Structure formats: C-alpha cells, structure tokens
Amino acid sequence: MITLNNVSKIYPNGTEGLKNVSLHIDKGEFVFVVGLSGSGKSTMIKLLTKEINPEEGEIIINSINTVNMKRSKIPYLRRNIGIVFQDFRLLENKTVYENVAFAMQVVEAPPKIIKRNIPMVLSLVGLKDKAHVYPNELSGGEQQRTALARAIVNNPPILIADEPTGNLDPATSWDIMSLLDEINKRGTTVVIATHAKDIVDRMQKRVIALDNGEVVRDSKGGYDDEA
Questions:
Q1: Which residues are bridge partners to 23 per DSSP?
Q2: Which residues on adjacent β-strands are paired with residue 220?
Q3: Domain extent listing, the chain
Q4: What pLDDT, in 10s, does the model give residues 123-172?
Q5: Overall pTM surpassing 0.85 (yes/no)
C-alpha cells in the first residue's frame, strides 16, 4: 500500500527532514508516526501527499512510484488519499453539507451520488443534524468531524491525518480517534502523525517513531515502548 525506500529529504537551509528512511505500511493498517517537534513527522506526511519531493529514494503508493510523477497526475494520486489537518481547513462560507459536497464535486461525482453519500458520511461522523450549519457555528470537535467527513466521503483507500487532535480537548480528541479507528475497521489504511502520547498509549497500534529524521522504532505498543 505505502512503501518508502531509502528516502531522504533535505530542505534548502540544509535541514535534513528525513534521513534514508525505509518502511512499508500494508493495506488496512493503522499506524501512528510519532516524535518530538522537528523529528520528521510533518516531512513524512508532506512526502506522502506529494506536497514536497525527496532528494533521494522512492515512494510507492498503490503500486505507483510518486517521486517522478508528472504534475498532471498528482490530483489523481490525491483522490486516493483522504487528508485531515490540525487546523481543519474548512470553507467558512459553505455549510457542513457544502464543505463535504465540495470534495465530491472536485472529483466530478454525479449529483445523485453526492446526494446519496453525504447523509451517510455525516451520520457516520455524528453530524447528521448539523448539515446546514456553517463552520463558525460549530465547536472545534464538530469542525474536525466535518473535515473527517470531507476526507472520507470519496471512500479513499488511505487516510492521512496530521495532528488531527492538536487543537482539541482530551475528551473530544478521543472521540475523533474513535472515529478514525472505526474508519480503519471498515478497511481504510490510516496513518496519523501525532505527539498525543496518551492516545498512542491507549490505542496500542503500530508506532513508527522518528528522531532527527531517522526511524528509531517501528513496533506495536505505546508512545515510549521499547522496540
């Protein structure tokens, strides 16, 4: 599903984002990417979503090497990846329904499919009664649920979340993580970059720990468990 082979990323200022990283994530896995600020978590996420390119190595997603992918093909890659951000990135002038519908309109889904799918996904994330509410009328947790609905409405095989609970209180954070766990159980591969130690410890999933751009641990368990 996702493979990194000897991937290195060096930024223009000389900072090494990743150093010779190799790893594989199977279809249907739930993986946490953890580490302190500057460890390489965000670099890895940006490489997976092709916001940036590595200096060395190859990145294979769904059997496609994305490193040398033509710019015109990038939108097709991203259609297979749902992305959730810490800051939600909702369209403030659109309702919950319209925000989620926009993700389907971008991939030119037929109107009848949009009309059918959105109520189902809003029900899944617990926002069925908030369909016609605007983002500024929602709590932080509800905004993240909207962002999550938007990320999964096209049924992508991969869901990537970058600090999805970073702006949320502990109880709401756990609600979001429970939703991500449920989405994973339905077959979606989930990759989450986070520093939320309590959540990682509680969920006991596979943990890829980064330190100074290198993988220092890859095993199942809590945040600080030894490999």
A1: 4
A2: 206
A3: 91-155
A4: 999 999 999 999 999 999 999 999 999 999 999 999 999 988 888 888 98
A5: yes
